[in-house]
């Protein structure tokens, strides 16, 4: 690991070789859990088929929303906490 930069996001570590289709997409959405993960570890997992949302859900509502420049948003959020 290069650094200790961690983010909170919704994450599912199931590794897929192909994009999920149909009902499997719903299963992935329901399987996402709030996770604190190093940015480098997240990048590696995503390269190998894991799934994530760049926001944390609380009661089905977004607490932290995704941004087009998610990396910058994560850095800013980490500075505030």
| Structure summary, number of beta strands | 5
Oligomer: single chain
Strands across the major sheet, in which order?
A: 2-1-3
Overall geometry comes to flat
Could you tell me how far the N terminus lies from the C terminus, measured between alpha carbons in angstroms? Answer: 22 Å
Mean pLDDT: 74
* Total domain count: 1
- In this structure, how is the largest beta sheet organized? 3 strands, antiparallel
How big a fraction of the residues is strand? 15-25%
Provide the succession of SSEs: EHEHEEEH
- Number of helical segments? 3
Helix content: 25-40%
User: Which secondary-structure class do the elements indicate?
Assistant: alpha+beta
Radius of gyration: 13 Å
User: Stretches where pLDDT falls below 50 for ≥5 residues?
Assistant: 65-69
Please give a structural write-up.
The chain has 81 residues and is of the alpha+beta class. The chain has one domain (6-80). 36% of the residues lie in helices and 25% in strands. It has three helices and five strands. The protein has helices spanning 23-31, 39-47, 70-80; strands at residues 6-12, 33-38, 51-53, 57-58, 61-62. The strands form two sheets. It has a three-stranded antiparallel β-sheet. A two-stranded antiparallel ribbon has the order 4-5. Strand 4 and strand 5 (61-62) form a beta hairpin. The chain is flat and about 35 Å long. The chain starts with 5 loop residues before the first strand and ends with a helix. Mean pLDDT is 74; it is low at 65-69.
How would you summarize what this structure contains?
The chain contains three helices and five strands; from the N terminus they run βαβαβββα. A hairpin with a 2-residue loop joins β4 and β5 (61-62).
């Amino acid at each position: 690991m290069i650094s200790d930069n961690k983010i909170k996001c919704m994450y599912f570590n199931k590794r897929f070789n192909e994009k999920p289709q149909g009902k499997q997409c719903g299963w992935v959405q329901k399987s996402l859990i709030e996770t604190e993960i190093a940015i480098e570890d997240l990048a590696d997992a995503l390269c190998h088929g894991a799934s994530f949302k760049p926001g944390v859900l609380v009661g089905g509502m977004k607490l932290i929303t995704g941004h087009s420049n998610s990396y910058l948003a994560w850095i800013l959020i980490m500075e505030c906490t």
